[in-house]
Design goal:
With 197 residues, this protein is α/β, with parallel strands linked by helices. The chain has seven helices and five strands; from the N terminus they run βαααβαβααβαβ. It is 37% helix and 12% strand. Helix 3 packs parallel to helix 4 and helix 6 packs across helix 7. It starts with 14 loop residues before the first strand and ends with a strand. The relative contact order is 0.26. This is Probable phosphoglycerate mutase.
Length: 197
């Protein structure tokens, strides 16, 4: 069972705003962009994504972030910049928040995702098509939270990442089998989930 010791802390020292990037050019084109070689410099926010972020900032209803930390992919960096600019913060890069790597499916149509998710439901350790295992994603995502819990207190930290990694993280924090990550309601582009203190 791939739950490891990934449940939520018994006492949170910080609050976290788990944010999925806004609608991206990859979403618009219906392609999988999961490798740093393609995603760090290309496939940023779409025009719709820019509008989503402007609206999100204008209608802000969450605690005010004190830090903004993001994946180094262009779509998450641009999303983080919107949030950081709105609150006078300087965003910082955290590569462990990167997109889940989809291996041989890189550059293919996003209609390939459900096949991988079906395999995830059978085994959170699988590497079919050289896809990053759900368990590995959970471990690196949870390590980000653990590090902040050890080094900071009383912060509200926006963690800007990607759909699959955030769903996997939320499944881990709920103490549920990682194979069930797609049983959660899908996180929409520019969505924010508040967890912690």
């Amino acid at each position: 069972m791939s739950v490891l010791s990934l449940g939520a802390p018994t006492h949170w020292r910080n609050r976290y705003l788990l944010m999925r990037h806004g609608h991206s050019q990859a979403n618009q084109q219906g392609v999988i962009v999961s490798s740093p070689a393609r995603g760090v410099a290309n496939f940023g926010l779409s025009e719709l994504g820019e509008q989503q972020l402007a609206q999100r900032v204008a209608d802000w209803q969450w605690p005010t972030p004190t830090r903004v930390v993001h994946s180094d992919f262009l779509r998450t960096a641009q999303t983080a910049a919107h949030i950081a600019d709105a609150f006078g913060l300087t965003p910082s890069v955290e590569t462990r928040l990167r997109e889940r790597y989809f291996g041989e499916l890189e550059g293919q149509g996003d209609d390939r995702y459900p096949g991988i998710w079906a395999l995830d439901a059978q085994n959170a350790e699988h590497h079919y098509h050289q896809v990053e295992a759900v368990s590995a994603v959970a471990k690196r995502m949870r390590a980000v939270i653990d590090d902040w819990e050890q080094t900071a207190s009383g912060e509200t930290i926006a963690l800007v990442s990607h759909g699959d990694p955030l769903q996997i993280l939320l499944t881990a924090l709920a103490g549920k089998p990682l194979s069930q990550h797609r049983e959660r309601e899908a996180l929409l582009p520019a969505s924010i989930t508040l967890i912690g203190a």
